Amino acid sequence: MIGIWQWIVGHDVAASRSITVLITAVNIGLLAELLRRLSCGVWPIVFAIVVFALTEDSIFYFSSATPFGLSICLQLIALHLMLSMRRSAGYAVVVALGVVLTMIYFVRISLVSFIAVSLAIVWVRAGRDRWRVYFVSAAAFVLTWSALAWVWGSRFIYVSLWFPNVTDWLFRTGGLPPLFPHALNLSHQMLMIDSPSRSLTEQLSYVFGSDMMVNWFLAHHVLPVAATILALGALVVRRMPNRGWIATFVAVYIFLLLFHHLGAQAYCPVCIQGYANYFDYFAALAGALALNGLSEPAVRKTAGRMISVAAIVLSLVLASSQSWYLVGSNRLPSIRNQETSLSGELRQVGDGLRTLLPANSVVGFIGSDSRIPLAMSDAGIRVPPVTLTLTSSYRRLNDNLTAEQRASTITEIEDLSFWTDQTAENWMRNDFEFVVVQRRPDRFPSWLVWAPEAPLVKRGLAKCFERIDARSFDDLKPPLSIELYRRTNRGETCVND
């Protein structure tokens, strides 16, 4: 799920590297200080930093569009505030936690799962002051949300409460007020339409099957998984220091992974690859505390240090192996990349587009391969934000609508930054001086009307655009082919015979 601010005002595909480096440095400092406050030694803290810094987030997403860094920063601040509660909670800590939890929600709606976990921890940490924390946190959220809703109106209300399928269902059943009655009642999302129907057993076998777990999770997050296994092993040791925190961090990590993995099945079955980056730091925390506890019983201080150093070395070897695997089999950027998170191949695509298109121009994109918008961003070219979530933001109108119902429904859909068939027709009629068309990979949902082989697109390209260039990048895996078109005509002839 995209962040509220990305939905409301749009966003760039790639963020500034200097900002992401700064946030990552702050996160490392917060992580280390949290462990120090839990009486963790220097070498286990170094181990945690290795696990945190060398996850997939740093290897691939280090300077990309993802809001992982800011979200993790806010989560770590919240953990620091909760750690400050010792069977009581002063007003300064309570207010600060309420503000931080509110910020976390507005940065990423799906982090309501972390907020729920935080409130559960507060129940124990704050003692009799827990209700004060709950009241102030609720007040901070309600006041902030109400002020923003007053400024931005019904669109913000819908966006700030949006979960795939869940929000639509609540509006239809009366659980939420009918803010967009036409869009939500007279249209529907096309999620997982092309997927075969499965029984519950078959669905669970797919969700937790070897392909999903190995290729989409373990291959990208092997280091946090290894740290979690270490923490689980430490829990069986009697009188383990910080045993409660180790168990808490492991349980929270597993819960958050399951929440996002199962919750995303309706719109992005493999998104656990990305979502896990939000919570891998929990594995780093648990692993460091476990290593600290396991090395303490050593007879000599030197032996304990050797245990920690050995764990750090093994982590570096494991991270290097993961980096080699990601670079080799998936052509993802290496951990050694110092300039950008984009691979050399994608930078070549961007260089090619830079010579063909004017800088800072808004260019249409017909396709779904995320490598193309990344390359366009590298070339200084912008794409409409809606095309970055093309399939999940599409809504199909119901059948047998009157002309008035159709008009009202389309207006509401576009006001929500969604799109439908008529929106795509308007794009083809008048928008974009240039469009980039994805030719390979060539697999698209059969219902997607803004796809290279869809009738609307084929007709519009033939009548209102001319092809000015074509590029193939066979070295990429999978191979990538694009075509560049320039507009030559406008109006109804672009969409009708």
What report would you give on this structure?
By secondary structure, the protein is α+β, with helices and mostly antiparallel strands. The protein has 2 domains: 327 residues, no CATH class; 151 residues, no CATH class. It is built from 22 helices and 6 strands. A hairpin with a 6-residue loop joins β5 and β6. α13 runs antiparallel to α14, α16 runs antiparallel to α17 and α21 packs parallel to α22. The protein is globular. The two termini are 38 Å apart.
- Total domains: 2
Gyration radius, to the nearest Å?
25 Å
The average pLDDT score comes to 82
Question: Which spans of ≥5 residues are poorly predicted at pLDDT below 50?
Answer: 1-15, 57-66, 192-196, 332-340
Task: Indicate the multimeric state.
Answer: single chain
- SSE ordering: HHHHHHHHHHHEHHHHHHHEHEHHEHEE
Q: Classify the beta-strand content into a percent band.
A: 5-15%
For the secondary structure, the number of strands is 6
Strand order of the largest sheet: 2-4-6-5
Main sheet properties = 4 strands, mixed
Can you give the helix content as a percent range?
A: 55-70%
* Structure classification: alpha+beta
Counting H and I runs of at least 4 residues, what is the number of helices? 22
Please tell me what the overall shape is: globular
Give short descriptive properties of this protein:
single chain; 497 residues; alpha+beta; 2 domains; two-stranded antiparallel ribbon; 22 helices; 58% helix
What's this entry about, in short?
By secondary structure, this protein is an alpha+beta fold.
Layout: helices, strands, pairs:
Elements: H1 4-9, H2 17-37, H3 42-53, H4 56-59, H5 68-83, H6 91-107, H7 112-125, H8 130-152, H9 154-160, H10 166-172, H11 181-185, E1 187-189, H12 200-207, H13 210-234, H14 243-263, H15 272-275, H16 280-295, H17 301-330, H18 344-354, E2 364-366, H19 371-378, E3 395-397, H20 403-415, H21 421-430, E4 434-440, H22 455-464, E5 465-473, E6 480-487
Parallel strand pairs: 2-4
Antiparallel strand pairs: 1-3, 4-6, 5-6
Helix pairs in contact: 2-3, 2-5, 3-16, 3-17, 5-6, 5-7, 6-8, 7-8, 8-9, 13-14, 13-16, 13-17, 14-16, 16-17, 18-19, 21-22
